Amino acid sequence: MFESHEELVEPARGDSVWRYMDLARFVSLLDRSALFFAQAALMVDKWEGSLDSFGVPLSDETRRHNIEANRQTTYLSCWHVSEYESAAMREIYQREGRGIAIRTTWGDLTASVTSTWPITGGKVNYVDPSSTVPPSRMFQSPFMLKRKSFEHEREARLTLWANGNGGPEERRGRVPGVEGNIFYSDESTARPGYSVKVNLNRLIKWVYVSPDSPEWIDETVAGLVGRFGYEFPIVKSDLYSDPLLR
After folding, report:
1. 109 in a domain, yes or no?
2. What pLDDT was estimated at residue 94?
3. What number of helices (H) and strands (E) belong to the chain?
4. Cys-Cys crosslink for 197: which of 20, 101, 115, 174, Cβ 3.0 to 4.6 Å?
């Protein structure tokens, strides 16, 4: 279930949020009725989870240990906040016209979570790494900070924590890695992600197919939605449409 937290700034409930994915991920979403939460340590941006409390240098062994433990036990589902479709997100996450975008609202996204695992989340704050960021006592807070180079993502995130025994649970106030039973010396041994159950009828408001997708892709998406028993509106994106042909 989703739980708001006073230290995390959320989008307004009615704000539109988007998730861009390839066709395989969309099939998995329909099949499992679950969102995939990816391990923070495996994200492309290696600064994930390290942008708070710059007063302690990264060379400090304890801090480095705690950051890495936190990165390996924090899992993220990332969304783009905008009332409009994003050309940048299309280019980054989709190729050859085979991408899917699902659109919903922040309120429906958070309300769709049916898993009993505690989920929190909010908007990402884009900061200058050379500045001092006030430290937070909340473990998820470092994952709500990214460098200004990523501002185009306009991201909001859901976060999940999993303990060293492989099961999601609440933090309960402990510092990860200190006891020595959470930190993985080899990132490959940590679980790459978790599937979190959601109510798809509540989650998905529209399915957008790529503006340059071939007709067979459009038909395949419509067929998949119907085969799994859903009736989501399917929209052909007009992102690259020619205004002279309208």
Report:
1. yes
2. 64
3. 6, 11
4. 115
